[in-house]
Amino acid sequence: MKKLFVEVKNGGKMTYSVSDLNKLDRMYETEVFERKEKRVMSPFKKEMQKSFQAQVRDYAFEKILDRHLYTFKYLLVIPNPYGLAKQTALILFNSSKECKVVYRVIGDTPDCDFTGETEYTTRHRVPILGLYGGRNNKIDLSLVDKNGETIKHRVIQIYVSPIQENIRNMVSETDTKMSQFGFIILNTAIGSPVAIDRNGDVRYSIQIKTGKLGMIPLANGHFLLVDKTANRIDKYGRVTPCRYHEMDYMGRVYRTYLLEYRIGRAITQHGDSLFFVTASDDGHLSDRIAELNLKTGELIKYCDIHSIVGDKYRVYDNWIDTSNIEYNDGRILITAKRLNSIISIDWKELKPDWIIAPPKVWQDSDVSKYVLKDKSEHREGEAVIPVCSFPEYTSLMEDNGDKKKIVLFDIRNVVKYDGKVIVPGGKRSTKNSMVKIIDIDEKDMSYRVSEQTEVLSSLRFSRVIHSEDEKYLLVAQGYLREQTDDVHSIIQEIDAGTGEKLHGSKIRKVFSSAWIFAPDIKEFCISMEKNDNVIFGKLNPLEKFAGELPVLSKEKTEGYYFGHGRICDELFLCNMRPGAVDRIYFIGEHNAYVKDMENVAFKDKKESFAIPLKEFAKDEYHVYVEYNDEVHKLKNEIRIVK
Q: Is residue 160 predicted with pLDDT exceeding 90?
């Protein structure tokens, strides 16, 4: 068969190293951001804001394309172009006429190929994702003209160094059945989100220290990443992340949020609003839904769930344990785990639309009129299974006005407090959990369980994802009741109509959430726009200090207690061993501030903390670290110049 394209032979490629990228940062930083007098000056090591670094990198890549140095035959390949996702690469070249690039990262089996496609252009930025770690990857590249004809073709190799050891072999066992879902992201409890393919191989990972919450997928295709390199101390003396980045899968950071409140794992997004679960007061947990404006970092609204359903069960701290929320057309669907309830509320009016729960839960309460009637068909003599017994996850599958369809993961457990069952109606099963499809008639105020499938028994961290045609369900169980050394969690596909178990994988690690890995390749081809306004929110200022310092030690600061001080914009970042350092002092000629760390719970490893300098008055400050009843003076000072 005659080939209609040119097979590129003896082609070359140039590869940029980390040091090459760092040189680009230094070369173009002042072109992207005008050199201004900084408010904070210090000999401490400087750390560039991650969003600024991504903008500088993209500016540098555009400058390379301006010079027309590379062609399809002689490519520039940049592994891990933004420094945060090593299983990615960026290919740069120019072409004489508008073409698009179609690529395929060749997988170990054909169904594990990762494919991507760019827009038509003469300035080509080809984002490559889905690379294997610890090996050379073959990438099949085709240059396609506007007639849809492949005019050039070549195969290149890109090497990726090994990924972190604790995530290399996530999957202990996977079957060979055909999967209806491709690549799946797992938020592992060890704080390293990964994407696995049908064979269980890790094809994407993030190289930034993050927490159990890990990635939070956003509706715009980006995700919010918890950054554990900047922590604060919460009111309970616990180390809690306070910096969050809005990122894309290439590792570009768009915005950074500094937050004094903790974002829980139940999160949903609509437009510029992020809805998340937090605490209503010091004595309770997971019982307030807050709305955060993503453009300003400000809280604009909140709803205490007890104001909607009442105080009947509000007798201990984690009385609801809200495990999932989902925004749909002005409503928020709440999975109220310990209330054995699914609650739909009108977010504008802050009142319930309906509740699905066993009848006894809300009997004789003010919200009993919102409880839907059960019209499910039950076989004669068959035991009736409660619709909700410790529900973990609920999601809307179909919305046809008054008729809706939801999918529910029900753990099937009963929780006791002080030896008593507080919320009635549930039924415990150690044998299995349930996946249920429920049809809702809002006009008739009723529901019907149309399908239910038994799955392995879970304790927490479970969710259900449905295919676009709703024929298949992906059941992700992040924390099984019965675990072995090799199996802590499982993902499996189920035929939604028959309940038949299809493709499945057994996972060695616990994971907190899962979703389909479907990055927008064409968006990654577009350079970031220059934007100075990328930091939102703020941390509480330090207390002013007016006393006397403890005895000054003659010894240097010991690395066991404190180290790695650095400046990032108007944050002082440092590593400390929680519970070992009592206070940090910033002593100036006219002003002084103190960060009290005395009541922090001890941890036998150092954590990175963020101390805000934004409210510091103009002065030159020396930094003192107090431990063992002495203070140790650091050799570098911090000057606030305006």
A: yes
Return the C-alpha torsion angle 355, 360, 362, 366, nearest 10. Answer: 130
| Span 562-581, pLDDT tens digits | 999 999 999 999 999 999 99
DSSP output for 583-614: EEEEE-SS-EEEEE-TTPPP-SS-EEEEEE-T
Long-range contacts of 497-502, Cβ-Cβ distance < 8 Å, separation of 24 or more: 497/451, 497/471, 499/451, 499/452, 499/453, 502/177, 502/178, 502/179, 502/180, 502/472
Q: Tokens 């938020």 — which residue?
A: 187
Q: Which domains does the chain have, with CATH numbers?
A: 6-160 (2.60.40.10), 541-640 (2.60.40)
Average pLDDT in the 117-144 region?
Answer: 97
Distance between CA 610 and CA 66 in Å, rounded? Answer: 39
Token reading at 215: 């990635």
3-state secondary structure 439-451: EEECCCCEEEEEE
Dihedral angle, C-alpha 450, 454, 457, 463, nearest 10 ° = -50
pLDDT for 1 equals 34
Task: Identify residue 193 by its one-letter amino acid code.
Answer: P
Dihedral, 619, 623, 626, 630 alpha carbons, nearest 10: -90
CA distance 608 to 460: 29
Please state the separation of Cα 511 from the chain's center in Å.
12
User: Considering only CA atoms, which of 526, 435, 443, 506 is closest in space to residue 472?
Assistant: 435
pLDDT tens, position by position, 391-416: 999 999 999 999 999 999 999 998 88
Is the confidence at residue 32, as pLDDT, over 60?
yes
